[in-house]
């Protein structure tokens, strides 16, 4: 896993720090520590702020270098906007903004004074700020051999958060660190190129959650064949790299027999489209077609690392969609594990074939309380929702509204889309039980209708994350190509609704 910045908490004594970050609210209102620095420096901070037109608005900063009268070399005043009504996500974003400012100046060591005009941040607020630092601090530079700093990998940042109750903040931070690790694992997996990360390598990486007490099983093709997962295996047959399915079980609830919440991920390590091949332009992005599986892996890590009191199951279907001499052809008919037959009209609509068997398997074997699957399933969802919202399809209103709420709370936003018999009709086939594509319109909805045919009565939600989980938008807490979409969202869902 990519190294995270080191964060520690200390009391509000900042005497020895070189770079100090202070929070400023509108109309230049400062906390007590910042006020005292200003006073000792003969009013340099406020003077600089005024000279620079800095008022303490959100996303603005003012830097003061070598102020006289104090030991600190550099004071970074970071505007946080009005303190009243700030949400947990606002503190995470603020942490991200601070990290962005430090990164822009190549500052590796700093003390952040977690104090506003009305006193110290509380433990949760300071811990949220620390989470933002970690998330923004992520960089994927494994393959960069030339760096600004020379040949050495950049040293990792060492940050201190000065807060009134450092021990309490640290305790709250532990949970967030687990979460940041989960997000980091997901980001790493999505960022890795497909030559490095095939199904076998992915399965090995996912298996590392066993170190945290997660019980892991890896199914190889022979085992999947015995289970009759021929929809999944049909996708994999054009690749020299064999398929894998990884089953991760976390037993955190009091009773091992409590039915689990289940998370299922599409893990197409590379999607060429197969014989229905994709155009060359932009195809490199298809190394991210396993973002659903990456999210499930990161989520299982986060839940186990924070010892969540819940039984959770993660299942990922790992294949590569390639077009060799043994590849599946358009027109082929495969028999899924459910017994339903599928006419493969387009070999590029492969994610649903993988999920068909994974969803069926999860219900049959584990009888989960509910299931959520994540997949970079359709280009159509990007046409509909762009990169801001992931598509949510659900057979259960309560689960849908919980997911929407978790999305709002974490900024990993979801927009509910229709599951409707009219879309389902589109995938009826003349020769098999169904075909794997519908009409040219509403492609995200016909894909969802397809998945629904492999889901029984269990509360279920399908998240189409093609627009959000790769080639991601930049944000306060994300700089990279992959943002680890879904880990924070689902961790929140579990925490708010499924823990005992
Ligand atoms: N992996 C793609 C979907 C995708 C597209 C993900 C762009 C991320 C960015 C999926 O397997 C696919 O190819 N879907 C086809 C379905 C079509 C053939 C019905 C699509 O969306 O074009
Ligand atoms: Zn495809
Ligand atoms: Zn795909």
Can you tell me about this structure?
- This protein is of the alpha/beta class and 500 residues long.
- It contains 15 helices and 20 strands.
- The chain has an 8-stranded mixed sheet with strand order 10-11-13-12-16-20-17-18, with helices on both faces.
- Bound molecules: ligand BES and zinc ion (2 copies).
- One zinc ion (ZN) binds next to strand 12.
- Ligand BES binds next to loops.
Give every kind of bound small molecule, once each.
ligand BES, zinc ion
Neighbour order of strands in the largest sheet: 10-11-13-12-16-20-17-18
Shape: elongated
Residue windows where pLDDT falls under 50 for at least 5 positions? none
Per DSSP, the total helix count is 15
Task: Tell me what portion of residues adopts beta-strand conformation.
Answer: 15-25%
What integer is the average pLDDT? 96
Class from secondary-structure proportions: alpha/beta
Number of strands: 20
Report how far the terminal alpha carbons are from each other: 30 Å
